[in-house]
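Q: What changes when pyridoxal-5'-phosphate is included in the input?
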Amino acid sequence: MSLFSAVELAPRDPILGLNEAFNADTRPNKVNLGVGVYYDEAGKVPLLKAVAAAEEALVAEHAARTYLPMEGIAAYDAAVQRLLFGQDSPLLDSGRLVTAQSLGGTGALKLGADFLHRQLGKSLVAISDPSWENHRALFEAAGYEVVTYPYYDPATHGLNLDGMLAGIEALPEGSVVLLHACCHNPTGVDLSLADWARVIDVIQRRQHVPFLDIAYQGFGENLQDDAVAVRLFAESGLPLLIASSFSKSFSLYGERVGALTILTGERDETAPVLSQLKRVIRTNYSNPPIHGAKVVARVLNDAHLYALWEDELAGMRVRIKAMRQAMVEQLQAAGVSRDMGFIQRQRGMFSYSGLSADQVARLASEYGIYAVSSGRICVAALNQGNIAAVTTAIAAVLR
Ligand code: PLP
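A: The predicted holo structure follows.
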């Protein structure tokens, strides 16, 4: 009997399993719609021009790699705040903002979860039904009970607003409520301005703690409009946590660039909050890595690079929207009689296609087209070269 013989094999990650099946498939026209990254028209993960330019300038500096402060690069943290609240926001000088660079959006969520648990004793979090699969696992690992509030309505392929409001209302007072600020993963279904106002109202009344996850800013409408939830929450006067990720918007997945921002209720709270957040950071990984955050800080703090990045981000967004439109048109042309227009109304990288697990399984076995069994497809994995094969196959399994 050796020490590790009692360790059981962890359940397989369903998306990794999907990738393995895709890789093992020898059909030349196979398509992987199960991924969670943006592919360009050539089917490649892009390296943005703004990123390359910032990297070249950084390499030329040959700077020493000393430790960063626990909360990361100051110019990065300030740029994150401008992106979230707008560069003219009075909050920027309010003394109520704390931002710490983090290991991607996942790292920001973990910092926020640990901070709320350790400092405020929070142990109940509500996430949307459905949500990004790591939300539940991450909060459970941080010591929380994870419950869900209704979100997606399969009948309309849209939002179940009444269910969502009632679900949030029914939570014990002071619960942590995790919300996707834009481009909901996995459904692509977002709230309107009026919907947000009602959600904020319930959260305020029930004294819940809002925690916004913004991993796709710029993929919905534009950088400003996609931050509308952040700004409405901030205007409401509620304290707020925000997990930002730049993995997608800068195509910097492996660099792990994100940030946790906390909007405190009063100026005096800010220094203690930062000091305790630093302890969370110190006891987890001490301090964050340099490269990705330096690249992002350089782009966000340079007018020319910022404009270039905004343009490239718009290019990704427009391409995804074009794929949504082509999908709807081609499905209709292929004889699908049900209204698939919801695909065009959904936003961001994903679409809940409405396909059943059986239909998804047929797509893989009969056509070499791989998607998550929930029916989630990554619209950003479509391109002019593969979309006809995908829509033909979907039309066939829907028949
Ligand atoms: N939150 C949501 C909703 C996501 O979809 C993702 C990534 O897929 C993340 C957070 C995590 O982002 P990161 O890769 O930066 O950790």
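Observations recorded in class: Residues 36, 104-106, 132, 180, 185, 213, 215, 245, 247, 258 surround pyridoxal-5'-phosphate (CB under 6 Å).
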